[in-house]
Amino acid sequence: MKGFLDLADLGLAEIADLLDLAARLERRPEPRALEGKILALLFFNPSLRTLASFQAGMARLGGSSFVVSPGQGTWILETRDGVVMDGAAAEHVREAIPVLAGYADALGIRSFAGGADLAADLADSTFQSMAGVCPVPLINLESAVNHPCQALGDWKTMDDLGIPARGGKLVLSWAWHPKPLPLAVPAAALHMAALRGMDVTVLRPEGFGLPEPIMEKARLAAAMSAGAGGSVRETTDRREALAGAHVIYAKSWTAPVHYGDATAEAAFRAGLRDWCVGNDWFDTAAPDCRFMHCLPVRRNVVVKDEVLDGPRSVVVHEARNRMWAQMAVLHRLLRG
Ligand code: CP
Question: Would you say residue 228 has pLDDT above 90?
Answer without folding.
Answer: no
